Structures are given as C-alpha cells and as structure tokens.
Amino acid sequence: MRDGKKVLFSGMQATGNLTLGNYLGALKNWVSLSDEYECFYSVVDEHSITVRQDPSVLRQRARKLFALYIAAGLDPEKNCIYYQSHVSCHAELAWILNCFTYMGELQRMTQFKDKSSKHADNINAGLFTYPVLMAADILLYQTDVVPVGKDQLQHLELTRDIAQRFNAIYGDVFTIPEPYLGKAGAKIMSLQDPSKKMSKSDENENASIYLMDDPDTIMRKFKRAVTDSEASVRYREEQPGIRNLIDIYSACTGKTPEEIEKEFDGKGYGEFKPAVGEAVVSILKPLQDRCADLEKNKDYIDQAIKNNAEKAEYFAQKTLRKVQKKVGFPEKIR
Predict the structure, then answer these.
(1) How many CA atoms lie within 13 Å of 257's alpha carbon, on the beta-carbon side?
(2) Would you say 208 and 19 are in contact if contact means Cβ atoms under 8 Å apart?
(3) What residues are labeled active site?
(4) Class of domain 205-293
(5) In the prediction, which pLDDT does 315 show?
(6) Dihedral angle, C-alpha 106, 112, 117, 118, nearest 10 °
(7) Domain-by-domain residue ranges, the chain?
(8) Which single residue of 151, 176, 276, 315 has CA 20 to 30 Å from 141?
(9) Which range has the worst mean pLDDT, 104-108, 185-189, 213-217?
C-alpha cells in the first residue's frame, strides 16, 4: 500500500512483436488501472535473454515496447514505466531469493518444461531460475496485486511461497501478492488454430495480428482465419473459430456476443470476417500513429526512461536494503 493505493506490478518481454492478444488481453486494461492502483509496468528485458537474442534487435524492441506502453495510454508521469535492466536491484534480489527457493519447486514449473523442449540446444540456468527473477520483480515493489493469466498463475504461487518462507524466517519483510481479479482482458486465440492462444512466437504469421501490421495485412489475415462449414455467426463452443472472431469484434466494439449475433443474423462469414478486420484496424491505426509520433520525439522518450528508472530504483532500493540487512550483509558506508 502506498499513498492509500495498493501497488500493482506487471510487465512484458521485449521479444517478438506484440500481438492483438497482448493488447486486448493486457495492455488495454492496464490503462484503466492507473487511477485505482500505484502501477509499476516493466519492460522485462532481463527475462528475454534466457533465449539468444540479437543485441541490436533486442534494444530496438525494448524501446518500441516502452513507446507502445505510452501510446496505449499509460502516462509515464502517473505510472512507473521502466526497463528491468536499468534497476540492478532486480538481479540482486533474485540471487538472494534463489537461496530461498527449492530445486523441486523450479522443476515443477510447466513453462520450464515447455521452453526446454523448444530450445533443447540452450537449456541454461537462467531458463531454470527465471521464475525467481519474476518473484524478485514482484516483491521488490511490495506489490499487492499482479494481473496474471492462467499460464502465469503457477509463477505467482511460487512468488507467494518464497515470500512467505522468507517472512517466516526474518519477519514481515515482503507483502504477499495476490492475483488481480478485476475485469479480465479478452482472451484472444490463434486465427489459424483457435485451440491455442494468439502468440508472438507462432511460426505461422497468419495466426497472429501484430500491433504494427498495416491495414491490408490485417484484412488479409482475417479473410484467411479458420472458421467452419456452418456459415452462421454463433457464439458457441462447437464453433471455436467464429467464437474467437466474435470475442475480437466484441473487445474492439464493446458489443456483446448476443448483439453481434443479431447484427450478423442471416449473414455469412464473407461479411463477418471483413467487419472484424475493420474493427481491429480502427483501434490499431491510432495506436500505430501515436507510437510513430512518440518514436520521433527522442528527447521525450529518453527523459521518460531516465525519470522512471530513477523512481523504480528508489522504491526497489528500499526493499533491497531491508532484505540485505535481514540476511546479514554488511551495510554500505555512505
């Protein structure tokens, strides 16, 4: 709790290109949380290097993601938006927390198993221990709530276990974070396989809408979206492809699935798919334009990066110094 507000933390990796799913499922909702919470939004670039990255591409994508946060409506004066790598406390606390995390806990992490199978030639220690760095990200800011999807819930549970274990030994040091249970963002599935989430790492480029896709590309991808042979716009489990398109149209227009069914009653997919594409273009084009304007304003972005890193460092250092003292590290002579 800070200034009467609970603290909220979240972040995104600066790898790949953000998708429509990232925007509708998370980023769009973050904007509405600024009034209710003291928000820390990180570009978690340290997490990105568990997989080999091209250094120049990683830098470019990290800066693009920073600009996208602001373009989406996150005010850098109101929210703390920062690069994880600019706050050394993340790595320092992660080392300490590694010593309070058990091997068995990390071996049970399903994402480690998934990523190991995808990157069999680079199963590094960072890939194994990155849930501890994630715990440090959260605990550094005495976070009360963390917006998480089902795939990240296991990591938050580990964070809670580590914090409770540390507190049991050293007293009330960490706030125990809770999952954010507010309005969930839309869960957007692949356009080519509606049984899977839309992913920025999907090898099929037609499966995902990327935030920087131009209107023609967006329209083409929706025309190729997998549907079914029923040819009716119905929000049913038996029609996962159409159900996904209805979810996307609903998230972009604010219309309910029932209203959408009525709107397209008696109309085929040939009319519905372009309508979904146009609705997506209508929300992404302004975002793309704002992002392009921000990227031209180098001084503004640089100042926001500097100011927010200093703010994040201030709060992170408070927690880190407390932890260092508890475990017995000598105090710095200032």
Answers:
(1) 13
(2) yes
(3) 115, 197, 200
(4) mainly alpha
(5) 97
(6) -160
(7) 6-181+298-327, 205-293
(8) 151
(9) 185-189
